[in-house]
Amino acid sequence: MDARCPVRTLELTVQSVEGLQLDRKPATTKNNLFVVVRAESINSYTTCMAKEDATNNNLTWNHKLDVDVPLHASSITLEVKSKTLKGVKDVGIARVAVSEFMGGFGSVPQHCLQFLSYRLRDWEGRRNGVLNFSVRVVNSPEYVTAAAGKAVSPCGFKLRGTTMGATTSSSSCGGGVVVGVPIGWNSYGSSTYNNV
Amino acid sequence: MGNCCSDVAGGHASIGTTAGDLRHQADTANDAVDYFLRSRGHRGLFSQIELLFSASGLRDRDVLSKSDPMLVLYTKGKNGALEELGRTEVVLNSLDPTWITKHTLIYHFEVVQVLVNCSIKFFHHRFRVYDVDTQFHNVDVKMLKLEEQQFLGEATCALSEIITRFDQSLTLDLHRDDFITSTHSQNYGKLLVHCEESLSSKTAIEMIFRCSDLEYRDLFSRSDPFLLISKVVEGGMQIPICKTEVIKNDLNPMWKPVFLNIQQVGGKDSPLIIECYNFNSNGKHDLMGKVKRSLLELEKIHSSGQGEKLFLPNKVVLNSQLFVDKFTESVQYTFLDYVAGGFELNFMVAVDFTASNGNPRLPDSLHYLDPSGRQNAYQRAIVEVGEVIQFYDSDKRFPAWGFGARPIDGPVSHCFNLNGSSHYCEVEGIQGIMTAYTSALLNVSLAGPTLFGPVISNAALIASHSVANGGRKYFVLLIITDGVVTDLQETKDALVKASDLPLSILIVGVGGADFKEMEVLDADKGEPLESSSGRVASRDIVQFVPYRDVQSGEISVVQALLAELPTQFLTYVRSRNIQPSL
After folding, report:
1. Which residues cross the membrane (chain A) (predicted)?
2. Which CATH number fits domain B203-331: 2.40.128.20, 3.40.462.10, 3.40.50.720, 2.60.40.150?
3. Which is the most buried residue in A177, B22, B55, B431, by most CB within 10 A?
4. Least confident range of B160-164, B275-279, B503-507, B538-542
5. If you classify domain B336-576 with CATH, what class do you get?
6. What mean pLDDT do residues B133-159 have?
7. CB-side exposure of B144: number of CA atoms within 13 Å?
8. Which residues on adjacent β-strands are paired with residue A81?
9. What does the alpha-carbon distance between residue B435 and residue B408 come to, in Å, rounded to a whole number?
10. Are both B47-178+185-199 and B336-576 of the same fold?
11. Is B224 helix (H, G, I), strand (E, B) or coil?
């Protein structure tokens, strides 16, 4: 990762998967399942092998990853893979828009823990289970900029008055161009809630 | 010989088909059970409230000694008549009595089993204090005739007013509504009401069952067993309270943990019947054996590590055995704990102002404001839900929106403030909502289409602000609509996004439209919602009820809409390990 390019860091915990099938049979721990997380970068992050949750028989990882997400990234992917004698087999993939966990309009503030569930699809687009994970933004250029100007509550910052992205002069990241994801937009243009 | 070979081949094919169907049905059944349990927070409970009373400053009605007070507890029924719920003992010679007698009330707010019709009930309780005449001191209080005693005073409150207090105590002024004293205020003393949730209501028991040496019940394969646990009520009737998942092709199954509440069972010494069935996709399951034991006995079985032999209805004892591999008892926080600990339920309202409701000036309009004062469906829904939830909101300022109307000189708005302001959306109290509603009807033009997305997103914005500020609030949005939602996918997207926020959404359908699409939004009746991006709702936050079902009088709006609300609340706080401030 190029140190000069700003990134946001996610504390992403891959929790469990429900309803996953391999070769039309329910997935088990014998399938040696693991998850690879990518954020539109050459870097990838890999979990351990899944275990079985005794309470609900779901396959679980509960594996925490610190994922660096480039500011230009628009999505992250979570790929469930199976390690076999013949190699690694793709089982399902979930693509998550970065805006989903960046505390946008009507979402959980980014610095609060968010629980997400996403439909997995195989490479032919067929549905194959649901992947559960949690996300918290632990480091973000937007957060640093906001914090420099005003106090921030423990669970994040208010939407009002938030800096709309950041400008960088580094040529490798596009000099003079505003980058980052706009946050706090109000597409409905309706009432303002007082006493916030 | 050739014919014999052909028969064998046909038999295999038939069995294979059946087995395939069986696996599919079993998966579906198990998934349904899992989702049912998860959506109810896994450990749904109902609460039993104990009321304790004391008084101070009572009037002295006896000449030679102090009064001998007794308290009588009433509830007001739907017809307004008072129904006596119970009486305390008589405290002799005291003007500041503390009664020992506890009065127990059921506070239902969530459903563990579908057979039980549970609901949040709005209690209005009336307390009357009497001075018992000396000659009746040795008479059982149940036999006392109240008209023969001296009436000291009475007080009225709602149960919600007590349980929402931090200390769960409420002090009330006693008063008398008789002609002689009504002309001026007098002090008849004070009544202190304290409530506690019974420990049995909070106690949950987790058990893991295992069987060994079950009998073969399928022709060419092992059995597919599941357990059905029932409680025995008066008359010997069995009421199912819990069911395990189906384990396929296993004669020595171990099931997922089972969670029971002592209150649900009736007591630790109440008999339970645990039946083991072989699952059949046609619904006619084979009984493989059963045991009849109380929770206490199951605990002993667990401690001993030994199994209990199953038997059949004809008393034949089988070689099959039931084991209790795990038996743990725990006390967990309940909805009432969170309420007492400062959590609030904040009420929000969104009203459909689309043209399909009809011209508000015409009697056939769903928005018709009857000059006689009779409320329309929208007004009734607001009042019936609001008057319950308002007790859980300290400031009683409620966001109120309309959607689908055209304000004066403006475009159609799919989320406008009922109060007419462009700056804030809150109104004061339930009456404020009603006033804003009638005012809005006179100041906007009904338009369309019916969109839920904007109001849901606005409610989600308020909830997300609360989370960001560390607020201990849970929001309840009531949407009242007459038509089919136009932006179904956008609504789903908004709901999925909101499912991770402290928000529940109640949808009431008024009028005669087809509300089938609404039922899609209510995850109780379908699969979990999925957004266009593939995100799946982390929990069910929607409850939909068509108002015409409610109009029959068999069930109220409050019961239908609010039954799942505490469960949705608990699912949220528990998933985030939020503790009440007790």
Report:
1. none
2. 2.60.40.150
3. B55
4. B160-164
5. alpha beta
6. 74
7. 27
8. A34, A90
9. 19
10. no
11. coil
Residue A178, min C-alpha distance to chain B (Å): 26
Structure tokens at A192: 């303002």
Contact A119 B458 (CB under 8 A): no
Angle between helices B377-389 and B429-441 (to 10 degrees): 160
How many distinct structural domains can be found in chain A? Answer: 1
B183 Cβ under 8 Å from any chain A Cβ: no
3-state DSSP call for residue B424?
coil
Q: Tokens at residue B381, please?
A: 């829904």
For A175, the domain range is: 4-195
DSSP conformation class of B472: -
- Tokens, residue A164: 């709309």
Task: Determine the pLDDT at residue B289.
Answer: 92
Residue A142 CA neighbour count, 13 Å, CB half: 28
Q: Distance, in angstroms, between A192 CA and closest chain B CA?
A: 5
Burial A70-95 (b: 16+ CB within 10 A, else e): bbbbebbebbbbbeeeeeeeebbbbe
Please provide the DSSP assignment of B225-254 as one string. EEEEEEEE-GGG-EEEEEEPPP--S-SS-B
- H-type alpha helices, B117-241: 159-163, 199-202
Quickly list DSSP for chain A: --TTS-EEEEEEEEEEEES-EETTEE--GGG-EEEEEE-SSS-EEE----EE-TTT--EEEEEEEEEEEETT--EEEEEEEEEETTEEEEEEEEEEEGGGGTT-TTS--TTS-EEEEEEEE-TTS-EEEEEEEEEEEEE-HHHHHHHHHS--BTTB--STT---SEE---GGG-TT-EES---S--SS--PPPS--
Tokens describing residue B200:
């049995």
Region B259-272: mean pLDDT is 79
Question: Which residues does residue A35 pair with via DSSP β-bridges, in sequence order?
Answer: A80
Gap between the Cα atoms of B400 and B386, Å rounded: 12
Residues of chain A with C-beta less than 8 angstroms from the C-beta of B417: 190-191
Calpha distance A31→A82 (Å, rounded): 6
CATH 2.60.40.150 fits B47-178+185-199, yes or no: yes
Tell me: pLDDT of B101 over 90.
Answer: no
Q: A188 and B537: CB-CB below 8 Å?
A: no
Cβ–Cβ below 8 Å for A112 and B468: yes
Q: What is the CATH number of the domain that holds A31?
A: 2.60.40.150
Q: Is B498 on the interface with A (CB under 8 A)?
A: yes
CA closest to A121 among chain B residues: B534
Local confidence band at A169 (pLDDT 50, 70, 90 cut-offs)? very low
Residue B367: is its pLDDT beyond 90? yes
Q: What is the mean pLDDT of chain B?
A: 77
The residue of B325, B330, B531, B535 whose CB has the most chain A CBs within 10 angstroms, and thus the best one to mutate to test that interface, is: B535
Q: Please name the member of A26, A155, A194 whose beta carbon is closest to the beta carbon of B424.
A: A194
Q: Which contacts qualify for A160-163: CB closer than 8 Å, 24 or more apart?
A: A160/A184, A160/A196
Q: Indicate the range of B249-263, B459-473, B546-560 predicted with least confidence.
A: B546-560
For residues B401-428, one letter each, b for 16 or more C-beta atoms within 10 angstroms of the residue's C-beta and e for the rest, the string is bbbbbbbeeeebbbbbbbbeeeeebbbe
The beta-carbon neighbor of A115 closest among B256, B467, B500 is B500
- DSSP track, B247-290: --S-SS-BPPPEEEEHHHHT-TTSEEEEEEEE--TTS-PEEEEE
